[in-house]
From TrEMBL:
NCBIfam families: slam_lipo (NF041636). The keyword Chaperone does not apply. Gene3D superfamilies: 2.40.160.90. Residues 21-123 form the HphA N-terminal heme-binding domain. This is Transferrin-binding protein-like solute binding protein. The lineage of its organism: Bacteria, Pseudomonadati, Pseudomonadota, Gammaproteobacteria, Oceanospirillales. Keywords: Signal. Residues 143-249 form the HphA C-terminal domain. It comes from Alloalcanivorax marinus. Residues 1-23 form the signal peptide.
Length: 250
């Protein structure tokens, strides 16, 4: 009991120290059964706490133990799309780094902002595929543009293999408070139609490919000075093959 009280006090202290120096890490995932995006908590080996991160649930790892994308991006090579793919087993024993599944993720601009997908074993079946986005908000709330249109060059990640990333443009209209546009790869096209509230956005999404089409929802965040970057996800209830993580920069 005593220890819990001490830990709680530490957590409060850490939280207030963090809020003095930085805003917050904000993001989401389509489902948090296997992976969860959030502030990195692990300070061991090559991992650093306090950054945009992700945790995975395995026999030897807990979803609350989140590691920073920054190191994961250095460790795993990026492909022609600028997408990093990390697949276990990684040769670390304590904790056992095997059975963590396959992560494909990319960075939005040069911010500590990341988006991507996880699945149990990667392609072609992408079992239990989950999409996510997460980033450090920085001073975006104090510097959000209040007028004008800004185009973001956006990448989308859906059942990733090298060369199949989606690309396109999302336009943020800071006068009308909307985010709209589309991105595709010649087969799948994802459309976004959302409203801005604060430095977040949410709305509808559409998916069209040779197999059919679906309607879904979109959520996302702006990050960094003057909304330098954005990231989010489009999800399609009952049609999760269309679930797509996206991100980009001005
Ligand atoms: C998504 C991917 C990864 C996750 C979720 C993850 C998670 C973790 C966790 C939970 C710990 C234990 C921290 C603690 O003791 O409190 C850890 C330690 C460690 N990780 Fe990772 N890790 C990942 C990728 C990697 C990669 C790519 C490497 C590179 C080789 C790596 C190397 C290490 C090392 C060396 C340690 C320290 C082990 C020790 O203390 O002896 N990890 N990791």
């Amino acid at each position: 009991m005593k220890e819990m009280t001490f830990k709680a006090a530490l957590a409060v202290a850490a939280l207030s120290a963090a809020s003095l120096t930085q805003a917050a890490v904000v993001g989401g995932e389509s489902d948090n059964t296997y992976v969860e995006a959030g502030t990195s908590t692990v300070d061991a080996g090559p991992h650093t706490s306090g950054l945009a991160g992700i945790g995975v649930e395995t026999n030897s790892m807990n979803i609350d133990d989140k590691v920073d994308f920054q190191f994961l991006s250095v460790f795993s090579p990026s492909d022609i799309d600028g997408v990093h793919t990390l697949s276990s087993p990684i040769d670390v024993d304590d904790p056992d780094h095997s059975g963590m599944g396959v992560f494909s993720f990319a960075q939005a601009g040069s911010e500590d902002v990341w988006f991507g997908e996880w699945s149990e074993a990667g392609g072609p079946n992408f079992e239990h595929r989950t999409v996510y986005y997460v980033g450090e908000k920085g001073n975006v709330d104090a510097t959000m543009p209040t007028s004008g249109e800004v185009n973001y060059a956006v990448t989308g990640i859906n059942r990733h293999s090298a060369g199949n990333a989606l690309s396109g443009t999302l336009t943020a209209d800071f006068s009308g408070n909307t985010v709209s546009g589309s991105f595709g790869d010649g087969n799948l096209t994802i459309g976004i139609d959302a409203n801005i509230s604060g430095s977040s956005f949410s709305g509808t999404a559409s998916a069209v490919d040779s197999a059919g089409s679906a309607s879904g929802v979109s959520v996302g965040e702006f990050y960094g000075s003057n909304a330098a970057a954005l990231a989010g996800m489009a999800t399609f209830s009952g049609n999760s093959d269309y679930d797509t993580a996206f991100g980009g920069a001005r």
